[in-house]
Structure formats: structure tokens, C-alpha cells
TrEMBL record:
Entry keywords, A to Z: 4Fe-4S, DNA damage, DNA repair, Glycosidase, Hydrolase, Iron, Iron-sulfur, Metal-binding
An annotated Gene Ontology molecular function: adenine/guanine mispair binding
Stated role: Adenine glycosylase active on G-A mispairs. MutY also corrects error-prone DNA synthesis past GO lesions which are due to the oxidatively damaged form of guanine: 7,8-dihydro-8-oxoguanine (8-oxo-dGTP).
Chain ranges of the HhH-GPD domain: 35-186
Matching CDD domains: ENDO3c, NUDIX_DNA_Glycosylase_C-MutY
Cofactor note: Binds 1 [4Fe-4S] cluster.
Protein name: Adenine DNA glycosylase
Family: Belongs to the Nth/MutY family.
InterPro entries: A/G_AdeGlyc_MutY, DNA_glycosylase, HhH-GPD_domain, HhH_base_excis_C, HhH_motif, MIG/MutY, MutY_C, NUDIX_hydrolase-like_dom_sf
Gene: mutY
EC number: 3.2.2.31
Needed co-factor(s): [4Fe-4S] cluster
Highest taxon of source: Bacteria
DNA sequence: AATACGGGGGA
DNA sequence: TCCCCAGTATT
């Protein structure tokens, strides 16, 4: 059997039951695809359920506050996805009367929708012949055809795109796209793939040449950069603290945090007080964590200290401590809030 | 052509 | 530690 027909046959037997597989409604497909970008099904699933429950149609999502969307997205990462999700919902609801574009070219124009997502929606919802190319597809194709071109190089993207367009089943692009991704996700896994029960074992170049473990080839990531964060956790006599919105560029845009003092290296209390007192009058300061909390992102390692500052008056307008859970915060801040337990402290 | 952008999980 | 994940936008 051909490569694509074999995958479809495999898929019909082995596919997982997932909520977005029971619909062709573009809103649900789009929502699931945005959530699943660089995110495993297991991690994204509860978020998908929450969004569908909270925003059953594109109109509810469009009418929501961005703050509410970010709060529901909290913990999933890559927050530009949530901001773009909301912006696109507003665009589709208002400008397109709630009707999503019905083809690859127009879908691609939506914020947060790139080549992969446009292909996925176009094929799943409208059966357009548009081959998806995600991490799973790269792996399956590179192994099956024995391609050593790095998948994250410009050349590689070109080569694999051509291969994907060549392999797609033009009679059933939706099934084929689902099939090759599912196959990559649960059988042709990054490590320890189940080759011995693989329907493609006879014709798989990587298996024949014993290259399963070295394919796909990928250009290595650069080392993450170290950063040193000091969060100023104020507690006033009237049980307020200071929390502020992250604006501008960089990570966690539009999420909330305690006032941040970033330093070149890890600092001690003397150094901290020196920098703090150059701005403010006396405070009672204690360090929450004696050892830096290292929050690891894919491109940054954040060495973090939380400084508890008890004070009569806040340096700026405060927020009731009882309300901090309402704000969308990075996981680093969320973990601190849970561990610190303000209620016990005040 | 590179880099920024999160967080969780597997080996 | 390092790699991967239903990638996209910006530089």
C-alpha cells in the first residue's frame, strides 16, 4: 500500500478520541490549533475544554476582555497566542460576521495563523489539499524518506514542504493530515518509536539504514541566557500589595507581576537595600527564598528572589491582597503566591 | 537567516 | 541536562 493510504489505514484503527475531532466547525478547529501550537495534546486539552465552556462561540470570545482571555490562558505559555486569539476573534466576529475564511490563503492572513494552522483549518474544515507540516510530520517524513537536511533550516523547510505536498492524499487531505500527525505523535515518536509494529517498516529508509535515532536532524538551540529577577512583594498595613502589568516587549506581555528589579547578577540583602533605599524610605525587608528560584524558559533562565517588604504606605496605588488571584500572572508568580500564602502572613 | 517567545514532560 | 511539543512573528 502507498505511504499515505497506509497512514490513513493506521489512523482509522489507532486514532485517539479528542473533542476537536468530533467537529468541522472552524471556530473549534481554529481554537484547538492555536492551543496546540508547540503544546502537547495532554497539556492543551484542559485549556481547550475551558475555552469552549467559557466562550462557546467566536462572539463570546470577541466580547471578552483581553485580561479574561489571558487569565484563562494562564500557565499555557506563549501568551502572544492568547492575545492574537482574542484579536482574531474580534476581527472575525465584527468584520466577517462570525464566519471564518474558508481557504488556506485567506486563513493565513489571520493573526496567529501561520502556514501550519492555515493548512490544518483549510483541510480539516474544508477538505482543501493543503499539507500540514508540524514537528510530527517533519519526523515521519525525515525518517521514512531518510532525509538528513536539518528540519529547522531554510533549506529543510523547503525540502519537507515539497515532500509533504507530494505525499498528501489528494482524495482525502483531512484524513491524511490527521493521520500523519497522529502517527508521529503516538507511534513514530522522537525516542523509542514502535518500529516492530509499524505498518511502514518495509519501506522506511531510516529503519533500513539504522538511522531512526539520528533522524530528524535539527540545528541545535543556543544556550539560554541567565537573567536575575528581584520581585518586590509589598504588604501594607491595610493589606494591600503592588501589582503591575508588563508592557512593552519581551516575555509575559500584558500579564501581571510584582514590581520587578532586574540586576546583572544575584544580589544579597545589603545590595538590595542599597538599591531600594535610593528610591524609597525605610522598609522592613525579608527575603522569601534563600536560594534563587530558577524558572527555566526555552531561551532564558530566570534566577529569582522574592523580597517581602512590609510598609505603612505603598509607593504607588495598591491592590487588595485578596484580589491578586484575579490577575493573569506567569507561572513563576503563581507558584510564589501559592507558596507564600498571604492570608497567613497578614 | 536568526531570534524571541512558556511551560511541561520524557529519557 | 537536553530534547520535544498539532509554530508564529519579528528582527
Amino acid at each position: 500500500m502507498q505511504f499515505n493510504k497506509s497512514l490513513i489505514a493506521w489512523y482509522s484503527v489507532n486514532k485517539r478520541e479528542l473533542p476537536w475531532r468530533n467537529t468541522k466547525e472552524p471556530y473549534y478547529i481554529w481554537l484547538s490549533e492555536i492551543i496546540l501550537q508547540q503544546t502537547q495534546v495532554k497539556q492543551g486539552l484542559p485549556y481547550y475544554e475551558a475555552f469552549v465552556h467559557q466562550y462557546p462561540t467566536v462572539f463570546e470570545l470577541a466580547n471578552a476582555k483581553e485580561e479574561a482571555v489571558l487569565k484563562l490562558w494562564q500557565g499555557l505559555g506563549y501568551y502572544s497566542r492568547a492575545r492574537n486569539l482574542h484579536a482574531t476573534a474580534k476581527y472575525v466576529a465584527v468584520e466577517l460576521d462570525g464566519i471564518f475564511p474558508d481557504n488556506y490563503t485567506d486563513l493565513l492572513k489571520l493573526k496567529g495563523v501561520g502556514d501550519y494552522t492555515a493548512s490544518a483549518i483549510a483541510s480539516f474544515c474544508f477538505n482543501e489539499v493543503a499539507a500540514v507540516l508540524d514537528g510530527n510530520v517533519y519526523r515521519v517524513l525525515s525518517r521514512y524518506y531518510g532525509i538528513h537536511t536539518p528540519i529547522n533550516s531554510t533549506e529543510g523547510k523547503k525540502v519537507f514542504k515539497a515532500l509533504a505536498n507530494d505525499a498528501i492524499d489528494i482524495e482525502n487531505p483531512a484524513e491524511y493530515n490527521q493521520a500523519i500527525m497522529e502517527f508521529g505523535a503516538i507511534q513514530c515518536k522522537p525516542s523509542g518509536p514502535d518500529c516492530l509494529i509499524c505498518p511502514l517498516i518495509e519501506s522506511c529508509a531510516a529503519y533500513r539504514k539504522n538511522e531512526i535515532s539520528i533522524l530528524p536532524v535539527k540545528i541545535k538551540n543556543k544556550k539560554p541566557k541567565n537573567k536575575y529577577f528581584n520581585f518586590l512583594v509589598y504588604i501594607s498595613d491595610s493589606d494591600k500589595t503592588v501589582i503591575e502589568k508588563r508592557v512593552g516587549k519581551g516575555i509575559w506581555q500584558n500579564l501581571y507581576q510584582f514590581p520587578l528589579m532586574e540586576t546583572e547578577k544575584s544580589i544579597d540583602e545589603t545590595e538590595f537595600l542599597k538599591r531600594l533605599n535610593s528610591v524609597e524610605s525605610f522598609q522592613d525587608v525579608t527575603l522569601f527564598n534563600s536560594v534563587d528560584i530558577v524558572h527555566k524558559l526555552s531561551h532564558q533562565h530566570l534566577h529569582t528572589k522574592f523580597w517581602i517588604i512590609k510598609t505603612q504606605e505603598l509607593p504607588e496605588k495598591g491592590t487588595d491582597i485578596s484580589q491578586i488571584e484575579d490577575y493573569a500572572v506567569p507561572v513563576l508568580i503563581k507558584n510564589f503566591i501559592e507558596e507564600f500564602n498571604f492570608e497567613y502572613e497578614i
